[in-house]
From TrEMBL, chains A, B:
Keyword DNA-binding in record: yes
Segments forming domain HTH gntR-type: 6-74
Protein name: Transcriptional regulator, GntR family
The organism's place on the tree of life at top rank: Bacteria
Amino acid sequence: MTPPTRLSWKDVRDEIHKAILSGRYGPGDRLPRDADIAEEMNCARSTVQRAMQDLSDSGLVDRRRKGGTRVRAEPVTRATLDIPITRREVEQRGGRYGYQLIRRVEETAPHSVLATFELTTPQPMQRIEALHFSDGRPYILEDRWVCPETVPEIRDLDLTSQSANEWLVLNKPYSRCDMRFFAITAEPQMAELLETEVGAALLVIERTTWIETAPITTVKAITAPGYRLLTTS
Amino acid sequence: MTPPTRLSWKDVRDEIHKAILSGRYGPGDRLPRDADIAEEMNCARSTVQRAMQDLSDSGLVDRRRKGGTRVRAEPVTRATLDIPITRREVEQRGGRYGYQLIRRVEETAPHSVLATFELTTPQPMQRIEALHFSDGRPYILEDRWVCPETVPEIRDLDLTSQSANEWLVLNKPYSRCDMRFFAITAEPQMAELLETEVGAALLVIERTTWIETAPITTVKAITAPGYRLLTTS
DNA sequence: AAAGCTAATATGTACGTACTTATTTTGTCA
DNA sequence: TGACAAAATAAGTACGTACATATTAGCTTT
């Protein structure tokens, strides 16, 4: 006498996911129509549609009108990354957060920065270098450019106690964010700031944000040796 | 006389997103109830619900029953990464793909590998080292462990022409995948295989997959110098 | 006061219908 | 045979209702 519990779209999603995992449907195979699955599983088509949309979002299946649903022929491994404010990241790991402004100048942005922003006309930008600490040890070295045209407040902002990272995230929501990850070897200056040896391998997390097409900021977060970036499971 | 075009949930989502971007609702602020937004925007509550769910998924707002919807107080930068099969990645960049098996042995997995799989009992695993090439130049060095208990087929598999990467992705769908990113300096052996100098900074993409709780494979994709990992915009 | 019960409330979800839209298939005509 | 138009198809979406569920607020009891 189990109660006639209705299927949630997540149940349906997991069911279909399992069918794919089991090999019942292999890469490229076509799945039944939503309507048929709905009938078979005794639920509404809209429920199946919601489930399928989720599977499509996670890259497991391809859906096309009239073409139906098929298992992706060349699957991708899709992962989601959460990058919190650095202060919060440190605190969540149980560390004591520290922050120090290193340098702050306004100068014409180099070509590489303009290119990152997809700009062609040169313009002055604020360059801000700062260090984030965890338990007194260097954690992330931040090399940032901020566009004063989009963010005029930056000029009057006190960045000795609050980091640009934090102020921007809280006050300048973006509509587009590109991220890049790569490795570099520590140059002498970086090495000194991060209290490591020259030549150490460092993971760099580079982020660029826009509001519509107006550039906000681009930042290289140069992490201390041993830093590991994890996906959210 | 514009046609009375109905609002799609994506329209509603973008509208609310814009309201947040404009600063009308700041971090921590509470948004109107779904029902009120629905009335204001002249659509059904279910439409607003779908929009809000998406905003919640992308980390912009927090939703709680009875508590209502509020803008996330400590926003996170959420990014999505797509990692395709290496062959496809090379080909999409317009390169000619090459592959070479370097080494393949079955041995007891070291503790670090067991720990990655969240296993406690030692067991034999296949270790597979292989090189992926782009236009004849080393592109990714793959250091992989496969669990024969979960993937018995691996023992009889010819890996001289097809990479384990490709076979696994096409034949062993997973239910869980953890990823880690970090930087290392090239050791002599790696440097030789990747045709670079000892000490070069290399980005490592480490992936571990399970089917339910059964370990499938864990792999360190050691990328050639200059490799950049990008988010899908 | 503190603890526990009750009511109120906002989101979560399913359902079935109606309609829209992209894509493929089929059919027609030159 | 090829080009083009028409029909068929399957996903995409909106809507309004009904009900479920988590969480808060208020009220009662000790």
